[in-house]
Amino acid sequence: MGMVKLIEPKDTGELALMKSLLDGNNIPYFVQNEHFGSLYGGATCIVMVHHSDLDRAGTLMGELLKDESGPLAG
After folding, report:
1. Between helices 54-68 and 12-24, what is the axis angle to 10°?
2. Which residues contact 63 (CB under 8 A, 6 or more apart)?
3. Which of 54, 63, 67, 74 is most buried by a 10 A CB count?
4. Spatial separation of the C-alpha atoms in residues 4 and 53, rounded to whole Å
5. Is the pLDDT of residue 73 over 70?
6. What are phi and psi of 57, to 5 degrees?
7. Backbone angles phi, psi at 72, to 5 degrees
8. Are the C-beta atoms of residues 69 and 18 closer than 8 Å to each other?
């Protein structure tokens, strides 16, 4: 099976962190519309991963989002 949607980062900082986590865990990914948004504003980036990596990548993103909403966030 091909690539599937993992997550839509809310901004470029979050995207950079997500890419770093995926790179650090050797999970191949593709960012759809990564540079389109900077040209036209408002375009949503979508991080895509291979179907076989979806569970592992989803766990990583879940940990990231949990950390962002924790007591030290905001």
Report:
1. 130
2. none
3. 54
4. 9
5. no
6. -65, -40
7. -90, -5
8. no
**DSSP secondary structure string, the chain?**
--EEEEE--SSHHHHHHHHHHHHHTT--EEEETTTHHHHHSSPPPEEEEEGGGHHHHHHHHHHHHHHHTSTT--
Q: What confidence tens digit (pLDDT) does each residue in 10-23 have?
A: 888 899 999 999 99
First vs last C-alpha separation in the chain: 38
Name the nearest CA neighbour of 58 among 7, 8, 4, 17. 7
Q: What does the block give as tokens for 21?
A: 């986590």
Percent of the chain with pLDDT over 90: 55
Q: Where are the beta strands (DSSP E) in 1-74?
A: 3-7, 29-32, 46-50
How far is Cα 71 from Cα 4, in angstroms, rounded to an integer?
A: 32
